[in-house]
Every structure is written in C-alpha cells, then in structure tokens.
Design brief:
- The structure is a single chain.
- With 344 residues, the chain is an alpha/beta fold.
- Strands 9, 10, 11, 12, 13, 14, 15, 16 and 17 form a 9-stranded mixed beta sheet that branches. Strands 4-3-2-1-5-6-8-7 form an 8-stranded parallel beta sheet, with helices on both faces.
- Helix 1 crosses helix 11 and helix 11 packs across helix 12.
- The chain is globular.
- Bound molecules: nicotinamide-adenine-dinucleotide.
- The site of nicotinamide-adenine-dinucleotide has 25 residues, from helix 1.
Length: 344
C-alpha cells in the first residue's frame, strides 16, 4: 500500500517532533514542513533532509539567507494527504480554509478551540470515533496526560468523577519571551481551569473539575489527581492497570526518580533525543486507594507527550489501522516508547 503523505505546518516545539516521528513510520512519508522564518530550525531541517516550504511572502527572505525551499504552503498541500498544523495556538484556525480548499485531511493541536475539528482526540479514549474523519484536534499536553490515566482507570472500574490540580511549567525551555520567571501563580479568577473542560471534549459524560498553578520551571508539569470510581478497587489492581497500560510508566522515588529533574536526567541517561519523555510518568508510591477513591501524582513532558497521539490521529483519519491497539503497537515500537516500571 502507498504510504500516506504528510506535511507539517509549523516547525516549532511540537511540529519538529511530529515531523521526525512521521519519518519513522512504515506507513507514512514526510513530504515537508512549513517554516515562516529562515532561522536555525530551518537550517536544521535542511541538514536533517527535510524539505522546507514557506509562505509566498517569505520566499525572498529564505533565498537571501541561502536556504533552499521546495515551494509554498500551497505547493506542499498539493502533495499531501494529511496536514498536521503545529502553528502557535489560535493560528491554526486562520489556516483551516486554506487546508479545506486544498482538500487535505487536517490534524490540529490543543491550542486551537475544540470546534476547529470534527473531534477532539485521545488514542486511549476515542481512537475508533475518529476513523475516517476529515479533521481531528489532538488535545493539549495536560489534557492528553489526564485522559491517558483516566481512560486506563476507567477500564478497571467506571470513573464517576475526577478532581485534579495541575502544577504547570511556566514556559518551554526555548521560550525566553515568557521569562525570567520567579513566582508561583495561582489562577483564582480562572477557576475551574480549562483543563477539565478540555477533558470533557473527549469524555463529555465525566464529572471533572481542575485547578492550575504556574511554577517557575521549564521541564515538565505535575498533576495531583483524585478520582472516584463506581466501585471499590484494590491498590494492587490500580498499580497493575497503570503498569500494563501503553504510554504510561510507573516511576519510583525510592530508586531516585523523585522529581521532574530526575526524570529528565534519566531520559538523558538513556539517550532520549531532546530528553523527550512522551510517556506519562506516574509515581508508584503516590497511588493511594480508599475504597472507591483513588489518588495519584503524575508528571507530563509537555514538549513531547502529544507526539504519539499526533501519529495515531493521522492513522485514524486515513483509516490505516482500525483499532487503538493496532496503531499503538506501531507508534510505540517505532518511537521506542517504554511501559511498565522505570528504572526497569
Ligand atoms: P511553537 O511556538 O514552539 O511553534 C510554532 C511554530 O509555528 C514556530 O516554528 C513558528 O515559527 C511557526 N509559526 C508562527 N506563526 C506561523 C504562521 N502564521 N504560519 C506558519 N507557521 C507559523 O509552538 P508549539 O509549542 O509547538 O505549539 C504548537 C501547538 O501545539 C499549539 O496549539 C500549542 O497549544 C500546542 N501544544 C503545545 C505544547 C507545548 O508544551 N509546547 C504541548 C501540547 C500542545
């Protein structure tokens, strides 16, 4: 079967990771990426063998810098089946008419409003509902993380309600415009936080309320989650459910993985590019069960957690695999995702 041809618009934090993940898929071909500026990331893309496209207004600027471009966004759209929009939050909406005119399928990111696409998407929760759609929105990093653990728990026993506090990183490592930062910023005026509402775009039946606090770190987010289930469960069963789930790793503070800094260091130790950790990390010692109440703490690498879901979203749009399990097998193997316990 011919490979699905994919383009990526926006080669920033999410775009560059999704583009490189597409290159690893046996059933996909990365045709090229769109860059608006001829900066170091454009040079990197060329060195990596990725074809660069740009906006017609920027072609001259690229030429001046001696960076070769293969054409415009419209040229790229003529050559692809699916476009992954990874432009800054809210910008994707301005491109939607351009994508629609070209007749390509569309993957949007969590920074866009939910109504940009036919469905908000999380592989572990609703892969099958996205099959054959024209457009999906992969929910944000925090929402993807919450959905992975909630949908895993929901298989053990139906989840009635969730309350969670999100401790958010202030900025991504490369985002100097948001720093320097030296404060803990609660957001009382925005209670409940949008994260729970975003979870409901995928699980409309779930009673969920979240709050968020921003802290001066760039590495990862941490969530404290409290869930009420329809029946009582045993601690061992909850641990086993998380341990066996794809894209979730149980980490142990007893073995030194006590903080987001330790997780990042371990990702460096095992040679992860850009210290990416697309797996959701749940601290095994934090899992607490009282009858039908379950609590746990989880860490989220915001720059990479949505990458596997973007790959699965492409497969769902193009009906490349008919079940979540099939796409997970391919994506997780090609991206080298871990499951079970860390460190080993
Ligand atoms: P980013 O700023 O790192 O990258 C955006 C890229 O788009 C940059 O290369 C920028 O130059 C380019 N760009 C800017 N304006 C453009 C335009 N008009 N046309 C084409 N390209 C343009 O942003 P990001 O963090 O990768 O976020 C992209 C999307 O992913 C957003 O919706 C965001 O909410 C979502 N997201 C981000 C994170 C995260 O932690 N960074 C996590 C999950 C989801």
């Amino acid at each position: 079967m011919a490979k699905v041809r994919v383009g990526v618009n926006g080669f920033g934090t999410i775009g560059k990771r999704v583009a490189e993940a597409v290159m690893l898929q046996p059933d996909m071909e990365l045709v090229g990426v769109v860059k608006t500026r001829p900066d170091y990331s454009a040079v990197y893309a060329v060195k990596r063998g990725i074809k660069l496209y740009t906006l017609s207004s920027s072609i001259e600027e690229f030429k001046k810098r001696g960076i070769e471009v293969a054409g415009t966004l419209e040229d790229l759209l003529n050559e692809v089946d699916v476009i992954v929009d990874a432009t800054p939050g809210g910008v994707g909406a301005s491109y939607k008419p351009v994508y629609e005119k070209a007749g390509v399928k569309m993957v949007f990111q969590g920074g866009e409003k939910p109504d940009i696409a036919e469905i908000s998407f999380s592989t572990l929760c609703n892969y099958e509902q996205a099959l054959g759609k024209k457009s999906v929105r992969v929910v944000s990093c925090n929402t993807t993380a919450l959905l992975r653990s909630i949908c895993t728990l929901n298989k053990l026993a139906p989840v009635k309600s969730v309350r969670a506090t999100i401790v958010r990183r202030a900025a991504d490592p490369k985002e100097t415009k948001r720093g320097p930062v030296n404060a803990i910023v609660p957001n009382p005026a925005r209670m409940p936080s949008h994260h729970g509402v975003d979870v409901q775009t995928v699980l409309p039946w779930l009673d969920i309320v979240t709050s968020a606090v921003v802290v001066p770190t760039t590495l990862m987010h941490v969530h404290t989650v409290y869930a009420r289930l329809e029946k009582s469960v045993a601690l061992e069963d909850v641990v086993e459910a998380f341990e066996k789930a794809p894209r979730i790793v149980l980490v142990s503070s007893e073995l030194g993985l006590k903080s987001t800094a330790d997780l990042v260091e371990y990702m460096r130790d095992i040679g992860r590019k850009r210290y990416d950790m697309p797996e959701l990390a749940i601290w095994v010692e934090s899992i607490t069960v009282r009858g039908n109440e379950v609590m746990w703490m989880q860490a989220v690498h915001q720059e990479s957690i949505v990458v596997p879901e973007n790959i699965d979203a492409i497969r769902a749009l193009m009906r490349l695999t008919s079940s979540a399990q099939e796409t997970i097998e391919i994506t997780d193997k090609t991206l080298g995702l871990l499951k079970g316990r860390l460190p080993g």
